Here is the input.
Amino acid sequence: MFRRLPEIETALNAAAEAVAFTIDGRPAKARAGDSVAAALLANGVTACRNTPVSGAARGPYCMMGICFDCLVTIDGTGNRQGCQVRVSPGMAVETQNGKREVER
Amino acid sequence: MTQPRRGGEYDVAVIGGGLVGSALAWGLARSGQTVAMLDEGDIAVRPSRGNFALVWVQGKGLGMSDYAGWTKKSSDDWGGFADLLYQQTGLDVAYRRPGGFMPMLSEEDLQARANAMMRLHNQPDMIPYPYEVMDRETLRKELPFIGPEVVGGTYCPLDGHCNSLRLLRTLHKGIGMLGVDYRPNHRVERIEHRDGGFRMAIAGNGAGGEIRAGKVVIAAGHDGARLAPMVGLSAPVRPQRGHVIVTEKTAPFLHHPTVYIRQTDEGGVMIGDSFEEAGFDTTLQPGVSSAIAERAIRFFPLLGKLNVVRSWAALRVLTPDGFPIYEESKTAPGAFVATCHSGVTLAANHALTLAPLIAAGGLGDRFTPFSARRFHVPQAA
Amino acid sequence: MSKFDFEIAVVGAGPAGLAAAALAASKGASVVLLDEQAEPGGQIYRAVTETPVRDRKVLGPDYWHGAELMGPLRDSGAAHWPGTTVWSVARPREDAADGHRPLQIGLSRNGAAAMLTVRHVILATGALERPFPIPGWTLPGVLGAGAAQVLLKTSGLVPSGATVMAGSGPLLWLLAWQYLQAGARIDAILDTTPKQNWRAALPLLPGFLRSPYLGKGMKLMLDVRRKLTVIGNVTALRAEGAIGGDSALKSVVYTRNGAEHRLPADTLLLHQGVIPNLNLANATGCAQRWDEQQRCWRPTTDAWGATSVEGVSLAGDGAGIGGARAAEEAGRLAALDALHRLGRIGREQRDQAAVPFRAALDRALTGRAFLDTLYTPAEAFRVPADDTIVCRCEEITAGAVREAVRMGCSGPNQAKSFLRCGMGPCQGRLCGPTVTEVIAVERGVSPAEVGYYRLRPPVKPITLAELAALPKTDADIDAVFKH
Here is the structure.
């Protein structure tokens, strides 16, 4: 679980830096400049997928683009690295269950 | 592990630990032979780690009907072979035989393909097998994702595929359970035929450095060219480079293998391949990978969105006519060579047919067409 | 049109890359700095141009030094391409007519792949956290301490709920100190530094006493020890989810003096040092060697960072861990050597210009041996028990690797074929060092003899459509279509 430092949370509530997006269809709020993975953690989503091998739950681990554990579906495209994509207004982020579908 | 008989001597030494060597070692050990399998180390030219994993029949053997028949036999025996491996090791090599396709991008190519299949079946002594030439609409019922350029293709119900890396692992596990003495980092420097048996000098091996066996089977892939002449055999093979691409794991969507594209049991999509004469250089060429990717998308446009997670270039073991060599030495009886570029497709034959014959003492007339002597006959003008 | 897009490409905009690009461009070379992140800084100075953490005492003066590297880069005229993933560095097939052998860089930018032709490449790919394979390290809620630091730098995020940090090494203490400054909650630090490391490190202490780290490091560690619960001599660790479930972290179990203890935890931050991020160098064909002191693989380089591949050099932690200040100086040395190789400066000019950088590099490296030795992780944390996952992507355990060795696998490449370990999208970054050491211990030989994965491009995934859109020669097309 992660939280913002208080002064950053305050500034975020002042709205100028806030970005509205969705996680599995639910409205969520991030800070401009957040990666998708950071935005998930900031919104209390620790696990973002189940693995295609055993189905075990996984969440962001390295935050620098090397572990591929924060894979999520972003705006309909599967297996995006959440920590390498910046969250943007209206973005639809979906957690993943197992293997990616070829058509998305 | 079974100890070698008579002061360090094995019934058979198999040189090569790839798919051909390990299938033969498995079959030899099942036939009651004491076997040593001599292999190179972790980094070596290893086509068995880079192949495409088809168990493929259609189109093979134009120019040698015996090879077409040999291939069909292996395909027919593959299911039983996979079952035996599973019963022994508990590992599933994921053999499936849903029938395979060769889609075509132009009417001209489709016609040429249809003609080739017909010529193949018109050869003397050809054992026929079912196949179909399909137009676009028929093909699309089986492969709904084909792109607009695909005009049709050929289909053969005998074609299938497996997980070839798991096959390699399963064979290695199996030979261990059968008591085969597996020796990695044992590159054979020299083979000597002496006192009715064979002595293999091992490169850079401090501990004695010699393996003795009553028979030797050279299944060393590219290294066969160097080793075969030491015992009066010939294996004029050359490397031919092929690039392969594999994507991330994807939910099952492609239910039949095609000659260039197949989905593995683990979910990745394997995409091949290329034909390059580049010696032993396995450096990847981005342009070649790109051409392979482009063709794949023309066959199945929806592949474009998938992420490529790995690619590699492997070296086919090719004889001058592309067909296998199986032969026993005339001057050093007990020495055999087995080499081919279809180590997956022919694994069932190697394990279940060829190995028992070697164990029993000889190949017989049936294998005469596969002798390397076919390359020594002066060509007609 | 020039045959080259740029004379020099620098890969990675951390301290080494920033310094290398700025210096090379300031001497007139055409330089492009390629970086995966949206903003320069690498991981050590991540988000230094835009972090929301404006109170400078939280991230500390060493972090803010990174901001000083931005001006020289801007002024140098080097092109900076952020958001650019380099997935291959390769030579083209044939020698160019004039004898130059241009290098081709495969990159992906804004969802499109392209090939870039350059004369020299400086890889400044930095470090990654050393794998810390313990049971449960794959559970959601378990992150690298470096990852947590990225969350702090980029987004001002700190752990909430029960938080445990575990491991060893300078970064662990730095992060704990930064959390203290930020007022974040840490329930405990589990120190896994092996007691006996002190004995081995002690003879190296005189070097460390002259090190620039000493003052800062000691103060920081004392601050943390005074204010937080630090539990030393931890010899075993595991992360556990809910009973019978694997959904998320619930507790951390550690062993101290032979007794097991359990701490409730929502977040576990693991760290046991950093190692070179060498995938691109390896896939480029650069020779590498096992470094016994740092217990990791590092590409082989000369005093200028030149690798075994002509035209490819390495600077910074990607060539062996030396820290941010050392990386900066190594970047400058690599830039000078590249300028010399390109004929822009003479040998004497290069050597003369290098004097202050080399002196600064030596200073920055003083005391490194002490830190390396003191913070060498215990074998239990490098070579885990059978039931521990080593390959996170394919979920392969240490036990499976050992079984493969018993079947005759003598190295990681055969193990990879048999087990798929190292075959997932991370391409062995999180299992490679572990697999080498597990095989080495099982075989009773050195890691150097066991070897490492042989990697190939793409070192980062690109889509098939991107790959398909790259330029091809007639020979490339014939190799695929004419058969």
